[in-house]
Write a structure and sequence with these properties.
Oligomer: single chain
Largest sheet: 4 strands, antiparallel
Structural class: alpha+beta
C-alpha cells in the first residue's frame, strides 16, 4: 500500500487521530521542518499540511526560512493532486525550489509501506 492510501484510510476512519501517523510519511530534514496538519481547514476531501523550509545559499549556509503549505486533494487519474501554497512569496527561491519540493513530497506519498 502506498503512503497516501494509508493516510486516506486513516482520515476516513478517524480524522482527529490520524495526524501523528500521517506526519511520519511526510518529509523531514533536508530543509523540511515544523510540519503540522491544519485540522481546522482540512477535511476528508482536502488535507492541508503546513511546513517550514530552510533555504541555503550556494556556499551551504542557511539563507532564509519559508513558511509553506501543501494542499493534497483526491484525483481519479493520479490518486491525488498536490498544490504548494507559497503564501504570496515571490522571490528567487520559489522558482528554484518548486519542483524540488513537489518531487520530494510526491516521492514520500508514493512510497510503498506495510499495512
Amino acid at each position: 500500500m502506498k503512503a497516501y492510501q494509508q493516510i486516506a484510510r486513516r482520515i476516513n476512519n478517524n480524522f482527529d487521530k490520524a495526524e501523528e501517523s500521517m506526519l511520519e510519511h511526510f518529509p523531514s530534514g533536508s530543509g523540511f521542518d515544523d510540519t503540522a496538519i491544519l485540522n481546522s481547514k482540512s477535511t476528508k476531501d482536502k488535507l492541508i499540511i503546513n511546513f517550514g523550509y530552510h533555504c541555503m545559499n550556494e556556499n551551504g549556509y542557511y539563507d532564509g526560512w519559508l513558511n509553506l503549505a501543501v494542499i493534497i486533494t483526491p484525483s481519479l487519474s493520479w490518486g491525488y493532486n498536490l498544490k504548494i501554497n507559497w503564501h504570496g512569496y515571490r522571490n528567487k527561491y520559489k522558482y528554484l525550489l518548486n519542483e524540488y519540493l513537489w518531487d520530494t513530497i510526491d516521492y514520500a506519498l508514493q512510497k510503498e509501506i506495510e499495512e
